[in-house]
Amino acid sequence: MSEFPSNLPGPPWLPPAHERRRVDRRWLLTCLMLAAAALVFFGWRALLGVAVTGVCAAVLYALIAWGLRNVRWQLSVDSLWHATALGLLMGLCLPVLTDLRLAAVTGAAIGVVAHWLGRTHRFRAHPVAVVMGALLLAGMLGAPGTWRVQPCLLDESGNVLRPNRLVLGDVTDVNEGAATEDARADDAASATAMQRWWNLSGAHGDSDAIVRPTPAYQFAQHAHDYLREPDRFREALRSGRLLPISELAIGAAPGAVGGSSLLVLVIAGLWLMQQRIGRPGVALSALLAAAAALMLLPVRADGGWTWALALLSQMHLPTAITFVTYGLLALPVPLIVLVLAPDGQPISATGRVLYGALLGGGAIAAVWWIKRPEAAFVALIAAGLIARLLDALRRETFRA
Amino acid sequence: MAALGGGMAFQGGITARVGEPAEVLAARTVWLPCPSRPVVAVGQRVSAGEPLSDPDDPAHPIQAAPAAPVTGTVESIVPYTVGKHRWHAVTLRAAADESPTTLALTPPDPLDRKTLGQLRRLGPWAQAELGDDLIAQIRQVQDQHVEAVICVGLDAFAPYPVRSSLLESFPDEVAAGTRFIGELVGAGRIELLVRHDLDELRRLKRSCRRSKVRCKPVDNVYPDSHPTLVVYAHGGGRRSRRMLPRGESPAARGLVLVSPWHALRIGRWLNNEKLDMARPYFVGWAQPRMPMRVQWAFPGQPLAQLAEALGGTSSDLAGRAVLGDPMTGRRITSPTDETGKPMAPGAPADELLVALVTEPARDAPDPCINCGWCADVCPTRLQPIRLIERGQHDAKDPRLQERLNWCIDCGLCTHVCPSQIPLAQMLRDYREAGSKNESRH
Q1: Can you give the pLDDT at residue A160?
Q2: How many CB atoms lie within 10 A of CB A262?
Q3: Which residue of B has its CA nearest to A22?
Q4: Among A112, A163, B178, B243, fewest CB within 10 Å belongs to which?
Q5: Residue A277's closest chain B neighbor by CA?
Q6: Which is it for strands B255-258 and B148-152: parallel, antiparallel or unpaired?
Q7: Residue B69: per-residue pLDDT
Q8: Stretch A393-399: mean pLDDT, rounded?
Q9: Which residues numbered 381-420 in B keep a CB inside 8 Å of some CB on A?
């Protein structure tokens, strides 16, 4: 039974301007937009993972709702459409998976968690963030390989090519772009991109393929090193060890299939804002706080601790700006801030700004210390838990 | 101008051209609600313009007394209760089938001390949407400095542009009437608030210049015409002085708010040396953008005579028509006569708009999804859903009741809620629970 009375007479005697179905449809459309980008960049396998999480979330949500209704006479509090959207978002936060059991389990977890956490509940921790946090914990506690979210595209079983794939030839002879006929493989200046990637791997002599960590993982692991040794950061970018910023912005950056393209995320975020579901205040304060955190968090250097800003100020300005920008783009901060954060944000304008600041700064801080990109989702959990407190921060114009 | 944010811009309706009233109108019976003790008796003959109740009733010392709109005989006097107040419905049977719509009277002089007393006997001057009777406001500011007289020409609800229609049809008279009231109370400022996109804005500005009234075109975002928001935005002075809680008269802040109809009525009186006893009623349709229909009628005349669409019986009107706009209007109710039968609903004395509405189909409310749209749209910056949660715990919580003083009942929170929670209705119930609690103590 609804906690609110129905059939109370007006005024107003106007039909309602909005319906909850419309809000839920907007969420589904956002997920479809990101899924379409995932399909373009990563192929059908990415879409399959997203679909599995969505379906599992919907099925579990419906089953539990049925159970609650029949056993405890309690109606489910949110809609099945929204639970499905949460499931799709879960899939979009995962990398391309060859083992879909992880997709199924995380989707099912969403279907369970959404009954007790989220936008309609007292504690508005985002269900996707909670499940990602659980995955992070499982990885840190040493869960078996299949159940860990790997920093790269593939699982730990070592499969790289499928049995029906056959590659003939020498990868160092691949001509790509403007390679000249007399270019030598060990000449970095004239090497093709494929040769550069191959040469940077650890065991290219006996290997048939190489596996590279995602930019998010690389940055999370090595951010402190890059600050202490700016040359190393510049070399990593120049040589291709770190994916160029342009590829992070446009798309196909390995990692979360829904968060690979900043361009698509910005479009999705702006669209949510235009629909008044997302808010510019949250996004702006989050991004500013994230940038500030990247500059202000402490780093161990020369036997002691210092602020990141102190080390950044010793770099060339373009390098410092690139470092901060890389951190913002490589980590899942845009995905969290632009797409996930609007669900369960505070309802007061001041509260939203603080929520965004906590989210952006907290995400960077969590990654800074835990050194895993999934740690950024912990900030979303924390921000959601205090969203209700932040609601009270509203400037009341009229007060006796 | 202080801006609060909030509110909602509705698409404006088509203004209606209000013509001059006919010299006579058919009116068999009229009944008027009298807030104070009637001074007439059943069977007594009264003339048009004669007060029906005691203007000096100590129980209602500052309100105006309604004057008989037609010459006729008192047919019945029925007491009834509205909330905590006792009223009397005085029914007149007109002496003739048709009655003159105006009364020949020498126009008053704003600087004459007797003018206010004259106006008090020629009511009603009720202005439901502006918080207080015009005469009541003038009486309250009599011995104090009056910051401003503001004629609120902003439409209460843009799809039904009643006030804009009056301004466009009679700009000179509205300006002259506003000036008159300003001089009557000795106001520091005399202003006319209008929509900045009014079709006849230029003509209205010329009229205002001639009458030395300041014309102020502003945005008309619903519900900017509410007294609380008018006083806050245009009151002048310290912010604390500009805060007007719900139910309090603008006169308490040194302001007099006038509706365009009353300004027009006085302006026409000054021009024509005749006081209008009939008034223009607007019938608004449920279909959007359908032009309003305007008809002159006497206050208290059966509503059914206003337009064919209103139907002929009380049961036809019940559930279809509201007095005022669909956001803030009130159901048509009428007292029961001595036999226990409800009286035929009469044209209201405090409202010019009768809107035909259909009860919107509402699904059962869903849980709140914390979208924040109710808080965004609230013109007084409350958080309706949080107030509801507090009210569900304890409707008589003093902190809740204090905040509800600033709920102006605009209905926007209910209108925008995607979960279709009846926010405005529940807040109204909590307020009533709080006021019952107060009266008990």
Answers
A1: 54
A2: 21
A3: B418
A4: A163
A5: B371
A6: parallel
A7: 93
A8: 70
A9: 381-383, 385-386, 388, 392, 402, 405-406, 409, 411-412, 414-420
CA distance A4 to B424: 12
Write out the DSSP string of B31-45: EEEESS-B---TT-E
Phi, then psi, of A263 in degrees rounded to 5: -60, -50
**What does the alpha-carbon distance between residue B204 and residue B163 come to, in Å, rounded to a whole number?**
13
Contact between chains at A3 and B366 (C-beta distance less than 8 A): no
Q: Where are the beta strands (DSSP E) in A19-109?
A: none
Using the structure block, give the residue that is written with the tokens 């009298």. B34
Higher pLDDT, A367 or A230: A367
CB neighbours of B319 closer than 8 A, spacing ≥ 6? B359
Query: How confident is the model at residue A168, as a pLDDT?
Result: 67
CB B411 within 8 A of CB A11: yes
Residue A164, pLDDT > 90, answer no
3-state secondary structure of B302: strand
pLDDT of residue A209: 64
Cβ-contact A76, A24 below 8 angstroms: no
Whether residue A175 has pLDDT greater than 60:
no
Report which residue type is found at B72: G
Which among B245, B327, B420 has the least Cβ separation from residue A14?
B327
The rounded mean pLDDT for chain A is 82
Phi, psi angles (nearest 5°) of residue B333: -130, 155
Q: Is the pLDDT of residue A167 over 80?
A: no
Q: Which of residues 224-243 of B touch A (CB under 8 A)?
A: 228, 232, 243
**String of b and e for A232-250 (b: at least 16 CB within 10 Å)?**
ebbebbeebbbbebeebbe
CB of A179 within 8 A of CB of A192?
Answer: yes
B140 vs B125: CA distance, rounded Å? 15
* pLDDT at residue A302 in the model: 79
- Output the pLDDT for position B2: 43
Contact yes or no for A240/A246 (Cβ under 8 A): no
**Interface residue of B370, B374, B380, B427 to substitute, partner A, most A CBs within 10 Å:** B370
Q: What is the mean pLDDT of chain B?
A: 88
Q: Which of B103-117, B258-272, B344-358 has the highest mean pLDDT?
A: B258-272
Q: Is A296 exposed, middle or buried (0-12, 13-18, 19+ CB in 10 A)?
A: middle
A90 by DSSP, 3-state: which?
A: helix
Distance, in Å, from the CA atom of A65 to the CA atom of B422, rounded to the nearest integer, reads 25
N-term to C-term CA, chain B: 40
- pLDDT value of residue A201: 55
> Looking at the predicted structure, is the pLDDT value of residue B185 above 60?
yes
| B373: nearest Cα among B408, B336, B328, B423 | B423
Residue A31, CA distances (Å) to A114, A269, B180 in order: 17, 11, 63
Does pLDDT of B203 surpass 90? yes
The Cα–Cα gap between B320 and B284 comes to 11
pLDDT tier at A273 (50, 70, 90 boundaries)? Answer: very high
State pTM to two decimals.
0.87
Instruction: Supply the pLDDT for residue A190.
Output: 46
Which amino acid type is present at position B418? P
Band of pLDDT at residue B236, cut at 50, 70 and 90:
confident
**ipTM score of complex:** 0.84
Q: How many CB pairs under 8 A join A and B?
A: 145
Q: Is residue B164 helix, strand or coil?
A: helix
Cα(B20)–Cα(B16) distance, rounded to whole angstroms? 13
Amino acid at B209: R
Q: Which residue has the tokens 């992880």?
A: A102
Does the pLDDT at position A3 exceed 80? no
Residue B64 has, within 13 A of its CA and on its CB side, a CA count of 28
Residues 244-283 of A with CB under 8 A from B: 276-277
What pLDDT score was predicted for residue A179? Answer: 42
Question: Coil, helix or strand for A237?
Answer: helix
